[in-house]
Design brief:
The protein is an alpha+beta fold. Helices cover 36% and strands 26% of the residues. The protein contains 13 helices and 20 strands. The chain has helices at residues 19-25, 54-74, 97-103, 119-138, 152-157, 160-163, 178-187, 214-220, 267-287, 303-315, 344-349, 368-379, 388-397; strands at 4-8, 33-38, 44-48, 82-85, 107-111, 114-117, 142-143, 149-151, 170-171, 189-191, 194-196, 207-209, 224-225, 231-240, 255-265, 292-296, 319-326, 331-342, 351-352, 360-367. The strands form 6 sheets. The chain has an 8-stranded mixed beta sheet. The longest helix is centred in the N-terminal third of the chain and has 21 residues, at 54-74.
């Protein structure tokens, strides 16, 4: 398939702090878009899947300008607050680990945003997961297991359709109809990796793939009055967030694995849990020899909601990210986050305290593939070069 490169000059200036967000959001403006780069001049360079005709180009330009104008008009520059900084931790590697991982067959891309991990990377993820679960149990957490799917009705209650429509992964099945099923079996085929499906095959959508772990715990507690607080849960789960052309390597996956520790209780209880556990999470990351910092952040709300919702999170210090250094391109990668939800989930799904007020909640989550990727970006893919604590821990697990 041929590629076409076009330059679009924004009708309004994009502030420096907003450039990365604009580039990420432009992935969703049109099926033609294959890649977006912000030039130093302020222009945007778009790689397209094919050459557009004049009508398509005009429509694309209108959509791009609309996204830029809306984000610029509604988003204020955040005041960056760094709660801890360990970016001066020495690192051994300055190469993109994906090059060696792919070359030596340690990871195989099986689809868009999906990678199968061989023993070397899998053992590293398993070691990190084990240490995080040990940390959670030491803080009184009970282990839970949750399904990969979550009901659509829950997402409606927590306004997920409004705030994150671009990242949804819908679950469908065929209608319970003999003729529909037989027609599907006879006519379905794949072309360029895309299924061609007979019209009218699918049932109504009841479930979606879960984008995070903590949602399942709030659903577990929905419509209940808690007998005691704080409730502390820990779980690992498969999570799904579609990120279009932004998905590449282990940095950003459609299907990824997340460990979380989740707190539900009064405002004071949840804040105290977050503070106490985050201190141990930081000590754990430091023990791995990781170069990172922790700073305030926001969730990736969709375009129309981004400015208001991100601003709300920043004003009330609701979200902090652990951002690990990527020496090969001197950027950072969010490997996890600390989140305080106030009583949003308590109100949304009616979780009440023994005192009858709505419960507050919070969580700390670490993406295991991202943590492994950042670690290998700093120490390489050769286990002999990894810090002793990691090498010994993996050996002790027999991984």
């Amino acid at each position: 398939m041929s590629k076409e490169m076009i330059i679009i000059q924004p009708s309004v200036t994009i502030p420096d702090f907003l450039v990365r967000e604009v580039v990420a959001k432009l992935a969703y403006v049109d099926p033609l878009v294959a890649h977006v780069v912000a030039e130093e001049s302020g222009d945007l360079r778009l790689q397209l899947h094919r050459s557009p005709d004049s009508v398509e180009f005009q429509a694309l330009n209108i959509k791009v300008q609309r996204v830029i104008a809306l984000l610029v008009a509604t988003t204020r520059e955040p005041m960056i607050k760094v709660s801890e900084n360990h970016m001066d931790q020495p690192v051994l590697c300055h190469l993109d680990p994906m090059i060696a991982l792919n070359k030596e067959g340690h990871v195989i891309q099986t689809g868009a945003g999906m990678f199968a991990l061989g023993p070397r990377v899998a053992s590293l993820c398993r070691y990190f997961e084990t240490r995080l679960f040990q940390l959670a149990v030491a803080h009184g957490a009970y282990g839970y297991r949750f399904p990969a799917m979550i009901p659509a009705q829950f997402f409606e209650k927590i306004q997920y359709f409004k705030n994150f429509p671009h990242s949804l992964s819908l679950v469908v099945h065929l209608q319970e109809d003999l003729e529909v099923i037989e027609r599907f079996a006879k006519e379905v085929c794949c072309s360029n990796g895309v299924m061609n499906i007979p019209e009218g095959s699918f049932s109504a959508i009841q479930n979606l793939l879960s984008p995070t772990v903590c949602h399942n715990f709030y659903l577990f507690l929905a419509n209940q009055t808690l007998s005691h607080t704080p409730m502390i849960a820990t779980a690992q789960g498969q999570c799904f967030r579609y990120e279009s052309i932004n998905m590449h390597s282990l940095e950003r996956l459609w299907n990824f694995t997340m460990w979380e520790i989740i707190f539900v209780g009064s405002s004071q209880e949840v804040k105290e849990c977050l503070d106490r556990v985050s201190q141990d999470v930081s000590r754990l990351l430091q023990s791995f020899g990781l170069a990172y910092r922790c700073e305030n952040a926001n969730d990736p709300f969709f375009i129309r909601e981004f400015g208001m919702q991100a601003g709300f999170q920043q004003i009330y210090d609701l979200k902090y990210e652990y951002r690990a250094r990527l020496p090969f391109n001197e950027t950072t990668l969010a490997i996890g986050s600390k989140n305080y939800h106030m009583d949003f989930f308590g109100r949304s799904v009616h979780i009440t305290l023994p005192s009858r007020g709505f419960a507050h909640s919070g969580c700390i989550g670490i993406g295991l593939e991202r943590l492994a990727f950042a670690f290998m970006a700093q120490y390489g893919i050769d286990p002999d070069q990894w810090p002793e604590i990691v090498k010994i821990g993996i050996q002790d697990q027999g991984c």
